[in-house]
Write a structure and sequence with these properties.
Alkaline Protease, subunit P, domain 1, eleven-stranded parallel sheet, 2 domains, mainly beta, 0% helix
Length: 254
Amino acid sequence: GRLGDDTLDGGAGDDYLIGGPGADRILGGAGMDKTSYYDEATQGVSVDLRVTTAQVGIVGGIEVGDVLQSIEWLEGTAFNDTLHGDDLSNWLIGREGADLIYGYDGYDQIRGGSGWDTIYGGDGADDIRGDHNSDSLFGGAGGDTIEGGSFNDTIFGGTGDDFIISGTGNDLLWGEQGADTFNFADLLFENDVIMDYEDGIDRLWFAPLAADDIGDFAITGNGTNSVTLVIGANTLVLNGAAPINLTADDFLFA
């Protein structure tokens, strides 16, 4: 669309619909339909895919009241956005800015982009990536894949068997309920802490660049509820783990 109030109807198939400034009706129809506020916006927007009536935001310096229906893929702006998915499977992309993103039900794929983002996956098995900067990531229910990316992230797996990827930076990781796998794929995962490691339930997965054998680690214990693993300049603290119970079965190398 252009300046003014437009109606964009995608119909059948996968469509990419951009309303631009004005109060637009963006109707995705069948297929995987996309809309973006990235190119036109001069400040952040608040968009909720659960709402089928007019929503207020700012695009191109003009207040708009877009109506979105049957949209599965939503991209924010270069500013601070609030993005809500719906009860289906969504793609939600924050881009720049400190974004607040909610996934809800379905298999949601959420990317924070650059900026200090807070992301909630909601129900369903979601794929959450914080990308750049220090993010707070919450998996919610379901077996989620959650990656912190670069900088210092805080990750909560939630319920379900989660796959948590630390990335670089000094990360605080909570697996919470379920049998969780903590992945350290980067050579420089730095100084991470798993806040609630459960012996015999959770596992540690190291890629070859990080380690390929339990003998690569210097392992020290602090009483019966904390273990510190050291490899090179990196440390990993396992709060809740007993040194005597940590065995080769806790480790995966691939």
